[in-house]
Amino acid sequence: MLAESYLRTRTRIALYLATLFLLLFMSVQNVRYGLYDLFYMSILLAPAMLFGAIYAWARRSDLNAYGGHLAVLTVMLVVVSLQLSGGQKAIVHWLYGIGLFSFLLLPLRPAFTFNIVTLLISSVALSYSDSFYSTLRFATSYALLVGLAGVYAYLYHHKSRFLVHASIKDPLTGAYNQKHLEFSLKQEISRSEATSHPLSLVVLEVDFFDQQREVQGQNFINELLSQFGAQLLQMTRAGDSIYYVDNGRFFIMLPMTPEEGLLVIAERLRRSVEEHTWPIIDSLTVSVGCLTRKSGETDDQALTDRALTALKQAQQSGHNRVVLSKSK
Ligand SMILES: Nc1nc2c(ncn2[C@@H]2O[C@H](COP(=O)(O)OP(=O)(O)OP(=O)(O)O)[C@@H](O)[C@H]2O)c(=O)[nH]1
């Protein structure tokens, strides 16, 4: 995700700056050739490009923010449409650029909406100064070019979503993987510290996992983990997230959950595993370590270690139990 935001921010800034230089170059040329209307248009759009580049940089950590880009595109559309309706027919080529820009600057849906609006407004503006057939020719070529760019953006969007999904999920259990746990825990700790909302963490391990694997084999373990992951997902509420680490060990992150609630859910999870009828082995138990983050506890590794110490205590005191870690 970081690489994605870095790449997109750089592309957007490069695009704005390249357009800014093109506009400045054109404004000089327009003055030289006495095309003052086009000169004013270039001068008007240049600050918008600068604003876009600054906006892209300022919102680099939030890829979903697009209000500033939409404002820049709207300014471009309005200025070009006014020129078009005033008789500057040559400017029509700018619209193709604006349409293509929109797929790099906006999320998919707003980009499609923006292009439909652009097609309508610019066709009306062009029809004031040009013939019906010229307007139709422009509308058709615009729809074809921008439609093609839209299809490409759509495919890219879905491919990158699939890759993000595949890089953070464990395919067997359907839970998130360990790498994503590290990222999410840091994020949730800062959120909890900033808002003072409680954050709880559960670590849960299938009892005698290695022995089960030796006796029953890997195929059985795979089936078990898949059912286990589904059961955990079913039992937790929206907002909770489940992570599979390895060797039958899961972490569950519970935002907005105080210690009293944590004990309720941890004990409920332990009991439901014990009472469930599992394939082949029938009965299965888990040991659980859990904790609620205390204010000022911001080290994710220390928090994880504390939960693992509680898990160890649960295992050493006979398995199939919940141990709550109390911070000193
Ligand atoms: N994060 C999380 N907390 C849970 C879950 N189930 C129970 N809890 C916690 O345990 C408390 C008591 O839960 P319940 O025994 O289900 O009682 P409840 O009155 O239905 O709880 P609410 O869901 O708050 O209405 C909740 O307020 C939560 O703090 C869960 O699936 N996820």
UniProtKB/TrEMBL annotation:
GO function term, MF aspect, one: diguanylate cyclase activity
Query: Listed GO cellular component terms?
Result: plasma membrane
Q: Where are the transmembrane segments?
A: 12-32, 38-58, 65-84, 90-106, 135-155
Give the first-level EC class, as a single word. Answer: transferase
Q: Where is the GGDEF domain?
A: 197-327
Per the UniProt record, which EC number(s) apply here? Answer: 2.7.7.65
- Keyword Zinc listed? The answer is no
| Record field: catalytic activity | 2 GTP = 3',3'-c-di-GMP + 2 diphosphate
Spell out the CDD domains in the cross-references: GGDEF
Q: Does the keyword Transmembrane apply?
A: yes
A GO biological process of this protein is: cell adhesion involved in single-species biofilm formation
Please provide the record's keywords in A-Z order: Membrane, Transmembrane, Transmembrane helix
The record's section on NCBIfam families has: GGDEF
Q: What is this protein called?
A: diguanylate cyclase
